[in-house]
């Protein structure tokens, strides 16, 4: 028989232990609490109740006061000493003030309930007691978490304060130091973006390096179209993050080419531009990038999504991103059910001019693909054994699988060079390493 589906994320039902030497009372309590969704355990003596507590995790105990051998006050005292987090209620049919006081003082009970009870009242008492226990546990958890995070922040602040002191002194000394600091901050920002863009690529081998290739092409197209440096940088970052809205996709959805999607899978896929925008909305500096990600699946002829806008109403950066992303997706088999060779991928792009793609963006793409003269490359390819401290990476250092190991503009030191060499030896690979040449001394 197939078991019913359950929500693994839902909290388990609260466990209530009822202790009373009268079986009819236990039966009545069991009938009362089970419809409330509680897991109900019963014991006919204090000793039996303690035995159950040793075996089971119990959230709340209801104990009768008058029981042979061990009365309710003594039983609840044992519970308080050994299981202090368990909520304790006293059930009594006697107006015996001294017994109730003993239970309060020794067992530190939450409430006492008189027999005969009102079903509604006792259910409310139990519910409120469990809610209070949950709040107290959450409060304790948050207090522990706060203390730990405060310690971590204190350590981090001490480290940051030392760095800020050093950096501030350097900034006072020269304007060049300020420019260098800004450059490093920009580099760290881009590195962080690249790390985020690698998260989705770790889900499948064919995705390795996809975001970086799209970003490189998008940046070249932006330059070709005459965008200023800020707009070009925005397009570059958007390209690095263009798949971030797919972070929650299932493996099956990620592995299915876009033109094969249908039904619910297609519906989930169509939401990824909106999800990408939502993920970046809290970051004020990335609002422009968020807008480009929202519009990346729009078509120039108005047949795209999520807004169905057309032509110049689509941000130019999004029009660039659409072409750059599709060009690489065609080659890795993510867009249609086969991998497309470069000449065929280019032709598919050309054939969709004015439909999926902006004619001006296609014209810039055609110029790049047809071999317009590019700037002369001044960096050098080298091997790990020839690296020297002070060398600066001119390009991202990536593994053979396409995952970034070090970002461009990273200045190498002896420790990092040793790690690169150890990586090659351990994995029996040779990395493609590009560096800027060291300046000639005295030049």
TrEMBL record:
The modification 4-aspartylphosphate is found at residue 64. Residues 185-381 form the HD-GYP domain. Keywords: Coiled coil, Phosphoprotein. Residues 125-152 form a coiled coil. InterPro entries: CheY-like_superfamily, Cyclic_di-GMP/3'3'-cGAMP_PDE, HD/PDEase_dom, HD_domain, HD_GYP_dom, Sig_transdc_resp-reg_receiver. PROSITE patterns: HD, HD_GYP, RESPONSE_REGULATORY. Gene3D superfamilies: 3.40.50.2300, Hypothetical protein af1432. It comes from the Bacteria. Residues 207-330 form the HD domain. SMART domains: HDc (SM00471), REC (SM00448). Residues 15-130 form the Response regulatory domain. Pfam families: HD_5 (PF13487), Response_reg (PF00072). Transmembrane segments: none annotated. This is Response regulator. It comes from Massilia aquatica. The lineage of its organism: Bacteria, Pseudomonadati, Pseudomonadota, Betaproteobacteria, Burkholderiales.
């Amino acid at each position: 028989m197939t078991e019913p589906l359950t929500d693994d994320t839902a909290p388990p039902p609260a466990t209530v232990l009822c202790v009373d030497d009268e079986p009819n009372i236990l039966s009545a309590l069991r009938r009362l609490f089970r419809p409330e969704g509680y897991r109900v355990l019963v014991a006919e003596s204090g000793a039996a109740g303690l035995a159950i507590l040793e075996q089971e995790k119990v959230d709340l105990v209801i104990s009768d006061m008058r029981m042979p051998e061990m009365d309710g006050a003594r039983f609840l005292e044992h519970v308080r000493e050994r299981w202090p987090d368990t909520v304790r209620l006293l059930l009594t049919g006697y107006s015996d003030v001294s017994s109730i006081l003993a239970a309060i003082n020794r067992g530190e009970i939450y409430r006492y309930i008189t027999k005969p009870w009102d079903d509604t009242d006792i259910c409310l008492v139990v519910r409120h007691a469990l809610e209070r226990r949950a709040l107290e546990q959450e409060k304790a958890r948050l207090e522990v978490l706060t203390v730990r995070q405060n310690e971590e922040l204190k350590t981090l602040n001490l480290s940051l304060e030392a760095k800020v002191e050093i950096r501030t002194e350097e900034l006072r000394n020269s304007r060049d130091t300020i420019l260098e600091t800004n450059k490093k901050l920009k580099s760290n920002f881009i590195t962080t973006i690249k790390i985020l863009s690698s998260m989705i690529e770790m889900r499948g081998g064919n995705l390795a390096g996809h975001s970086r290739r799209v970003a490189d092409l998008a940046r070249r197209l932006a330059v070709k179209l005459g965008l200023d440096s800020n707009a070009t940088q925005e397009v570059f970052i958007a390209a690095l993050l263009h798949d971030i809205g797919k972070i929650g996709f299932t493996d099956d959805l990620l592995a299915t080419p876009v033109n094969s999607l249908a039904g619910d899978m297609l519906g989930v896929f169509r939401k990824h531009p909106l999800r990408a925008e939502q993920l970046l909305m809290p970051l004020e500096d990335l609002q422009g990038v968020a807008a480009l990600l929202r519009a990346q699946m729009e078509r120039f002829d108005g047949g795209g999504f999520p807004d169905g806008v057309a032509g110049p109403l689509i941000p130019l950066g999004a029009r660039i991103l659409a072409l750059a992303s599709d060009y690489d997706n065609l080659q890795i088999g993510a867009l249609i059910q086969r991998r497309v060779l470069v000449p065929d991928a280019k032709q598919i792009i050309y054939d969709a001019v004015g439909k999926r793609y902006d004619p001006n963006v296609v014209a810039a793409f055609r110029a790049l693909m047809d071999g317009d003269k590019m700037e002369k490359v001044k960096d050098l390819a080298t091997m790990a054994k020839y690296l020297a401290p002070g060398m600066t990476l001119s390009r991202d250092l990536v593994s053979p699988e396409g995952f970034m190991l070090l970002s461009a503009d990273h200045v190498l030191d002896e420790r990092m060079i040793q790690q690169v060499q150890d990586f090659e030896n351990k994995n029996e690979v040779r990395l493609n390493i590009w560096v800027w040449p060291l300046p000639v001394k005295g030049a």
